[in-house]
Task: structure prediction
Amino acid sequence: MTSHWQTSARRTIETEANALKTLCEGLSEPFDQCCECIAKSRGRVIVTGMGKSGHVSSKIAATLASTGCCAYFVHPAEASHGDLGMIMPEDVVIAISFSGESDELLQILPTLKAQGNDIIAITANAQSSLARFSTIAVTLPKVPEACPHDLAPTTSTTMTMALGDALAIALLEHRGFTADQFAKSHPAGRLGKRLTLKTHDLMHRTPPTVPPNVSIQEALVSMSRGRLGCIFTVDDERLLGIFTDGDLRRTLERNENLATTPIGNVHSARPKSVPPESLAFTALQQMQDQSISALAVVENDALVGVITLLDCLNAGL
Result:
């Protein structure tokens, strides 16, 4: 049975989803002009707004900055008390107000216009003071707020946030912004690690190895000392195979003689491997996909290390 809580929640989400569809269908030339203005600018992008629009403006600035655009949020009330000095003539200013009549914004617009800033308005009122002051006006559709009183900013802030995301991604694609570039501005946390940590950063550089002609029993001694749950068979440095805890169980089930059977008879030939320059997250995905706990790290057919599932998890991947 659907609760009254869920009924309210679904109504809110449906209202906002319908608004986003209307926004999407209504995108037109002003959005193109907005993108071209920012793409051609040699300055920064300054995003400003008051109240709920201010919170949305801050998020849009952060999204633009994280996707390769030099963007900052400036509070309009603080701007009129000195922070206007932070805005240079070559900067593009995105001013956000659903009504287009926010007093704090209107106070700073004449100064910005006088110093030659391009002003991009995001508003629902194409006839507003903000729209008239702007170089480009991107108009949001007039649709009901999710609030039953049509008062609390809900649908309007969702549309503005989505428009900011659309702008950031359009500019990202225009510039050919890459995952490597994205990683440079996200060095911390799981996302940064997944995009920056290489296999050679986490691998064990002296993996346990034995020649293929030693007995299983001898190999197990070296395997235990290695404490990785596996050992590699090599010819000089050339990788031949891998023997794991799972291989040991299967060997015991076949009643192999551990003292006399060469490890090369029971190892897994052609083990899965990755190059040292590959992303550690790629190695993790490969181990998870293939249900294995270790990967050989190979360069020019030579074994140079081993990376384990535990290494990746301990690193926060």
About this structure: Residues 126 and 132 are 8 Å apart (CA to CA). The first helix runs from residue 4 to 26.
